[in-house]
């Protein structure tokens, strides 16, 4: 691969938004799913991989080789650090997750035959982003089983489990947050009416 900025067709001084816009447009154009009937399908797939690598390299440089993506929500739910993925497909999945393109990430992940702990982790993040919380938990648990010492995987599993518990407990009172207060008010009104009637 040559200069990553040339691959994406942007200048080195381009803003993050310009880089993302170019990346998304090129990814859609050369995505394997968009080139199923293309006679130059193999070249399109190679180009797609180059685009993923170029974007990955630019973002790593901008983040000075570290940092983390937030995969879901402003609170950092499903955040995951950028680690060196050993295949272009895993890099593509990481890029899609970083841009909250969860269905596209799942499409890429579903075409990978070797399921590592990182693969299950990415699946968990993608499923959580799509709202498939049960499947997300199962994938996170499998990632932890494969790499029990990985803190990142454990944190995601805890976030998914805590989120489920919180929602189920809060859901019991959903729509009735003032029920006990209402009972108190009704009792007070009734007592006031009784006192008023007795005093008249």
Automatic annotation (TrEMBL):
Coiled coil: none annotated. Keywords: DNA replication. It comes from the Bacteria. SUPFAM superfamilies: Chaperone J-domain, TPR-like. SMART domains: DnaJ (SM00271). The keyword Transferase does not apply. GO terms for biological process: DNA replication. Residues 3-73 form the J domain. PANTHER family: CO-CHAPERONE PROTEIN DJLA. This is J domain-containing protein. It comes from Eubacterium plexicaudatum ASF492.
């Amino acid at each position: 691969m040559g200069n990553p900025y040339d691959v994406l067709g942007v200048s080195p001084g381009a803003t993050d938004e310009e880089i993302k816009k170019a990346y998304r447009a090129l990814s859609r154009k050369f995505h394997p799913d968009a080139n199923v009937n293309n006679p130059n399908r193999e070249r399109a797939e190679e180009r797609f991989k180059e685009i993923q690598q170029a974007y990955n390299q630019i973002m790593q440089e901008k983040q000075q080789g570290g940092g983390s993506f937030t995969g879901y929500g402003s609170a950092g739910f499903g955040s995951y650090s950028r680690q060196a993925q050993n295949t272009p497909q895993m890099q593509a999945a990481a890029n899609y997750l970083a841009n909250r393109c969860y269905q596209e990430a799942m499409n890429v992940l579903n075409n990978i035959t070797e399921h590592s702990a990182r693969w299950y982790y990415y699946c968990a993040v993608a499923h959580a982003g799509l709202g498939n919380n049960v499947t997300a938990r199962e994938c996170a648990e499998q990632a932890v089983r494969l790499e029990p010492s990985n803190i990142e995987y454990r944190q995601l599993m805890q976030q998914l489990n805590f989120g489920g518990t919180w929602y189920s407990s809060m859901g019991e009172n959903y729509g009735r947050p003032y029920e006990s207060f209402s009972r108190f008010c009704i009792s007070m009104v009734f007592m006031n009416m009784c006192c008023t009637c007795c005093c008249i």
